[in-house]
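Q: Here's a chain of 256 amino acids. Please give me its 3D structure as tokens.
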Amino acid sequence: PEPEPEMPPDGLGVQYIDNLVVRFDGSVAGNILRDVHTGTYDATINANSPTTGTDANHGDYVTLGTNWYNLANNFDGVLTNKFSMSFLFRPSNWGSNYGTLFGNWNGSGYWFGFMGNGYHVNMSGGSANPSTNTTGANGVWMIISTIWDGSVWKVYENTTQIGSNVSDSSIDFAKTWGIGVQYNSTGWRADGDLASLLVFDELIPIDELVLMHSEDAFRFPLDLHNWRTIYDFSTNYASTTGISIRTREELNSAGW
């Protein structure tokens, strides 16, 4: 008889699945950058069609620059005083000013991204331009994260905090947000390749947050009792549809 398949370990992100708000992994459908978590925040390209690619280590990505993406919905009522955001990004305009990874423009700028050879966070009234101990460079994949606890922002390059804490006690999340641009302020862009973007409504330890960009980080949890049944279901589904199931969300969408 065939050997029983080994049960894969639960992905690190599974413990935070209820706190995951949106997850982009470079998947597109037409002119949409797909929110592969729930689809609530599918983001539409500003014009033309997505420029895409596949990296051997980081999987699918979309190229930001001339094109950017606007979220279908905002975070009003979803995010309050806990917020973790992380990008797996390869810049191509590192060193430029006002390189927005995520932002809004409604007469004044609310954004997070690059500023010169460092980073800038200004999501309501407080702002900072931390530029010390950065190692960013064009053509280099890096994980850029910001975490807000309702009082201060922390900015990280990979697992290293950049600069000091940024005081900021309130944020209006009821805005139209853009990925790769300050919404409606099209000159302030971050150019480069985006392979992954995660948003949580919880404070995620940075050493765990950076690991959640792995495509297996949100693999659905299994136990030995039902693993064989799910394995058979997934195998049959893949052979019938040509679609591989890798996450709990995909398993549920397939009708499990």
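Q: Can you summarize the key feature?
A: The CA atoms of residues 53 and 61 lie 5 Å apart.
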